[in-house]
Amino acid sequence: MVNVASNPTASNDGRTASDPGGLSVVDVTSFFSETASGGVRTYLTAKARALSRPGVRHTIVVPGERTGFEEWEGGTLARIGSPVFPLAPAYRQLVDWRALRDVFETVNPSVIEVGGPFSEPILVRLALDGRRVPVVGFYHADLVRTFAEPFVDHAVLSPLRAILRVGARGMIRAVYNRFDATVCASSSMFRELRALGVKNVHEVPLGVDLETFRPLDREDGGALSDPGGADPVSPRDDAPPLPARNGAPVAVYVGRICPEKRLDVLLDGHALLPREEQPNLFLVGDGNIRDSMAARARDGGRVTLLPYVSDREQLVRVYNAADYYVAPGPGETFGLSIGEAMACGLPVLCVGRGAGPDRVEGSGASELYRHGDPADVARSLRAMRRHLGPEARKRARAHAERTLDWAVTFDRLLALYDQLATAGGTS
Length: 427
Known about the structure:
This protein is of the alpha/beta class. Helix 7 (about 265-270) packs across helix 12 (about 375-385) and helix 10 (about 335-345) packs across helix 13 (about 390-405). It has 14 helices and 14 strands. The chain has helices at about 40-50, 95-105, 120-130, 145-150, 160-175, 185-195, 265-270, 290-300, 310-320, 335-345, 355-360, 375-385, 390-405, 405-425; strands at about 25-30, 55-65, 70, 75-80, 110-115, 135-140, 180-185, 200-205, 250-255, 280-285, 305, 325, 350, 365-370. It has 2 domains: about 5-205 and about 405-425, Rossmann fold; about 220-405, Rossmann fold, CATH 3.40.50.2000. Strand 10 (about 280-285), helix 8 and strand 11 (about 305) form a beta-alpha-beta unit. Strands 3-4-2-1-5-6-7-8 form an 8-stranded mixed beta sheet, sandwiched between helices.
């Protein structure tokens, strides 16, 4: 890797990034980790591949240990040396607007998409230094439910919870109304942003790699180990297709192990069931409450933690090893893991809050439970038994094929970018 300021990158049609021809798309986000799962990274990976086409140059700016350029997934990844974010050590936070300015001077953006609401909008404006470039804000994170709610969950502190909600809503209006356009990925988020007073909102649903995430023949095997022991276990290449020793269904969650995913509500509901009615529940991922979740798993019950899976084919095997997927996060703005699971043929148990219900609506292969209600989790876990078997898996896959096409996503985004680039942007 080399110094950002001295490395104009080649476009896919032979031009360099300093060539004014073509559309130069720049993504800027801190929601990017080398070691943790995350929907933004999945989105940017698919975007880099889709924008690897003549007439488009794509640069993704993310924090890293050091500053430099590299080719990545058909586009260009520009890392800027950044500090580790204390509350989420797997992530770093962009802070150096001068280095970002150097990237902009090198790649000459036609349009910039900002993938975070905190430091990124301020850094982009500083780095543009008065240049008129259209700036789009992508509403990747539900700020109210992800950042304002999970950390204040006590009746005595409910006034502080209310204050945090009001503050988060005000922040959303202030931040996203400064963009030339705001993009969200689901109808529920579209309605919420408009209700909060955000203007010029565009709904652009995301997609799934339907060729990679696919049903496997059950004899191909899965990646889940038998949960008979108390300690968490790791995936094995020689694992059986299902941990069927106890005859119970297998449910899987894939994602960050963090407070906002409300895994506590899921586990509380799971624990309300008699042991003979409990599904085998696998939590796959990493995060800042993994130790506490592991302790709960060791306390008994059919709960097992597995480590973060970075290999996509191994992740496909994880999905295929389960009978259904659980989506407990009330702050999902799209639900990429839900889409991946359904593309692999998994019915979905989903919290009835956020964008998750949008993903499963009309599938005929899902159940919803009330947010924050362990008793309703237990009810819905029982109800998922009606969605077991090959017919439900076929319905889930068919729903993914109908609703989750990345080509549609990026065609819509490029049309918006072209419109904004033609109109010009704000400084």
